[in-house]
Design goal:
By secondary structure, this protein is mainly β. It has five helices and 43 strands. The chain folds into two domains: 107 residues, Sandwich (Immunoglobulin-like), CATH 2.60.40; 593 residues, TonB-dependent receptor, beta-barrel domain (Maltoporin, Chain A, Beta Barrel). It has a 21-stranded antiparallel beta sheet that branches. The chain has a five-stranded mixed beta sheet with strand order 8-15-16-11-12. A hairpin with a 2-residue loop joins strand 42 and strand 43. The radius of gyration is 29 Å and the shape is globular.
Length: 716
């Protein structure tokens, strides 16, 4: 009885103590660190965060963020990062806390650090092959013509990347055509990447933070182009003060502004470039006195950070070019005094990044991209201008979830919706009556994709990356589709109404990468990637003009497809900061577009009559030697490659080289590149470039037949 009384007496106290104990356990709060570079205000990825009291921690993510839930108390936080001074802080955690830290560069190590946020052994440890990751500092070190920093020109110094001549409207990667590269500028595709017919790229140089180039097992989140993805990133304007910089060059002048609009919340970046080269042409070549060439490009970016877990950006990119040349081509019944080209790009990118914790992130992206090329024909002795116009409008929505479960286990999944609206061409006679107005029907299509990728260890020294992209392509009406007999004769024209489905393609695209680690400094990799391409640029010159025609796949022009196999050996010598790699690849492509002899694409309603779809193969071997830091640094690379095409047509007139293999326009067997940088003091550095390469294939006409105003080449 006494025991029962005592229990009742102390029952309330025991219950109160139990609740207090439970309350104490439940008092967990979130600690959020945002880590940036003190000078550039850019977030630092890979900063090591150690909490002494629990001997726990982690590393910052791509946004410079680190999250941890801890019980209330006092903690000592240590932050360390290669090339930066260590930071130690004492904090009292009694509520959810957000801490912002700026890390200072070690001055004596500044010239030794080339890629600050990069894992020094990443090229050995990752499953990715055929990838180049370059930041702005590395790109600037590569010398270019007339002192103008240029992304595309710098890229042609890399193995497997080449242009199609001194005046080329893009780049060829591993033997692919120019339209087989997906060029992204802050997530938005760019359909014409150059100014002055290839002399400069259109990308505003001062605002670029880095470039990622994928050429082998392209990540599953990318699709739509067969040869490569070139992902050009615009810097986020992390700044707490007004910044202004610019320069005046021989061919162009540029200006860049960065400023906070709301302290630590809203920041603004603007960069622009303008070029006036009219005065150069008569100085260099007197007969070009009537030539005009002006261009400009501009980028603005807004960064909004409402809190540590959310970040929003908006990027607008705009370019315009205008050229005038002495008459080199015209249209029947038009008597023009000159050729004028006027083309522009207008892109918009909205992006929202939400971080659930240090490992889980959700990224939403909305994109609009517009490209409008024009050809103008001013009539002789008249103020009338005849205009040929085409447009491409592209819209995209992408939602992606990423989770880094452990090292190396991580995965991402996503959904993407793309829409193309193409006006293939219209001819407006203006006030004249020499020709009739012409309007080709628009092309409308949608791509819907589901994608995912996971990277994990199969064994202690074997890592696998397995990805899959499922894509549905639908060409929609209104549309007119030509129907042909087996002999190729036109039998019927099938009409489709608004919203009708013209054709549908559904294709799986697996992406696989395997890394076998031999030791801490070397590995062997193998990869496979399958990609389909539903849009193509059609032209009958060695390099497409800015006004070249874009065409969606339909029932007659089938989607292009690509299977890429790669294997390579990677070796690092950390003591000397030297990286070496040797890669071999084989690409098998189907339905490559090549043109029939004498093809004329101008205002052609049914392009399948002007082109041939051929099978292609490209293969090669690349060696790369790179010294990443030190007073003398740089790279040396050699590429041996072939790019071949083969038609398989029964009809003789549709054969090329009698159905035997022949070199494509991008077949350059040998290329050697070298770039050496000599670091002086903090203000001086010297760079040297060297390139040697074999030429592209060229067939000389056996003769010319004059027919009216046309010169028709004859090949025997």
């Amino acid at each position: 009885m006494d025991h029962k009384i005592k229990f009742k007496k102390y029952k309330g106290i025991i219950f109160f103590v139990f609740l207090s104990f439970q309350w104490g356990i439940a008092q967990e709060f979130s600690l959020t660190y945002t880590v940036r570079d003190q000078e550039s205000k850019e977030p630092l990825e890979g900063v090591t965060v150690i909490i002494e009291e629990c001997q726990c921690g982690g590393i910052t993510n791509t946004s410079g963020l680190f999250f941890k839930r801890l019980t209330s108390g006092n903690y000592t936080i240590n932050l360390t990062f290669l090339g930066f001074k260590s930071v130690q802080q004492q904090i009292s955690l009694q509520e959810n806390k957000e801490v912002s830290v700026e890390m200072e560069v070690e001055e004596e190590q500044l010239s030794e650090i080339v890629v600050l946020a990069k894992n020094n052994n990443k090229n050995v440890e990752s499953t990715q092959m055929g990838v180049f990751e370059l930041n702005a500092r590395e790109l600037i070190k590569i010398p270019t013509a007339l002192g103008e920093f240029d992304v595309l020109r710098s890229m042609t110094m890399l193995s497997g990347v080449s242009n199609t001549g001194d005046v080329s409207n893009g780049i060829s990667i591993r033997g692919g055509s120019l339209d087989q590269n997906l060029l992204l500028y802050d997530g938005a595709p760019v359909f014409n990447p150059t100014h002055l017919f290839g002399l400069f790229s259109v990308f505003t140089p001062d605002v670029i933070s880095g470039v990622n180039i994928y050429r082998a097992n392209i990540p599953a989140k990318y699709g739509g182009r067969m040869a490569s993805v070139v992902d050009i990133k615009v810097e986020n304007p992390y700044t707490d003060q007004f910044q202004l910089e610019g320069g005046i060059g021989v061919l162009s002048s540029r200006l860049k502004i960065a400023t906070p609009l709301i302290k630590d919340k809203l920041m603004f970046l603007a960069g622009g470039r303008i070029g006036f080269t009219d005065f150069l042409f008569p100085l260099l070549i007197p007969r070009l006195k009537n030539t005009r060439a002006n261009f400009n490009d501009a980028t603005i970016k807004l960064l909004y950070i409402p809190n540590a877990k959310n970040q929003m950006t908006y990027t607008h990119f705009r370019t315009r070019d205008f050229y005038q040349l002495d008459l080199i081509s015209s249209i029947e019944n038009i008597i023009a005094s000159a050729n004028q080209y006027d083309f522009s790009t207008s892109n918009h990118t909205f992006r929202w990044l939400h971080s659930f914790d240090e490992s889980k992130h959700l990224v939403g992206t909305g994109v609009f991209s517009g490209y409008t090329p024009k050809s103008l024909f001013p009539e002789v002795d008249s103020d009338n201008v005849i205009e040929y116009l085409s447009t491409i409008n592209y819209a995209s929505i992408d939602v992606e979830f990423k989770n880094k479960v452990s090292d190396p286990f991580e995965y991402y999944v996503g959904l993407q919706w793309n829409q193309y609206k193409i006006n293939p061409g219209s001819l407006d006679p203006g006030n004249g009556n020499s020709i009739l107005p012409t309007l080709l029907p628009n092309e409308n299509s949608q791509e819907r994709s589901l994608y995912g990728n996971a990277t994990f260890d199969l064994m202690e020294n074997i890592t696998l990356s397995a990805g899959l992209r499922l894509t549905q392509f639908v060409l929609m009406g209104p549309y007119e589709q030509a129907v042909y007999s087996n002999e190729g004769k036109l039998e019927n024209i099938q009409s489709f109404g608004e919203g009708d489905q013209v054709v549908q393609y559904f294709n799986p695209e697996p992406r696989i990468g395997l890394n076998v680690k031999l030791n801490e400094s070397s590995s062997i990799k193998a990869s496979y990637a399958s990609i389909f391409q539903y849009i193509q640029n059609i032209y009958n010159t060695t390099t497409p003009l800015p006004t070249s025609r874009w065409k969606m796949s339909d029932q007659n022009i089938l989607p292009q497809s690509n299977d890429t196999y790669s294997i390579g050996w990677y070796k690092n010598q950390e003591a000397q900061n030297i990286e070496f790699s040797a890669e071999a690849y084989y690409r098998l492509t189907e339905n490559n577009l090549t043109y029939k002899p004498g093809a004329d694409f101008f205002l052609a309603e049914f392009l399948e009559n002007e082109v041939i779809q051929a099978q292609g193969e490209a293969y090669g071997f690349e060696m790369n030697l790179r010294k990443t830091s030190g007073k003398v640094n740089g790279f040396l690379n050699y590429t041996w490659s072939r790019s071949l095409l083969q038609t398989q047509k029964e009809n003789f007139k549709d054969r090329i080289n009698n159905n035997k293999k022949y070199s494509s326009d991008f077949d350059r067997p040998h290329t050697l590149n070298a770039s050496i940088n000599f670091e002086g003091d903090s203000f001086n550095a010297f760079s040297f470039n060297f390139t040697a390469q074999t030429g592209r294939p060229y067939t000389i006409a056996n003769g010319v037949i004059e027919q009216g105003n046309l010169n028709i080449p004859i090949y025997l």
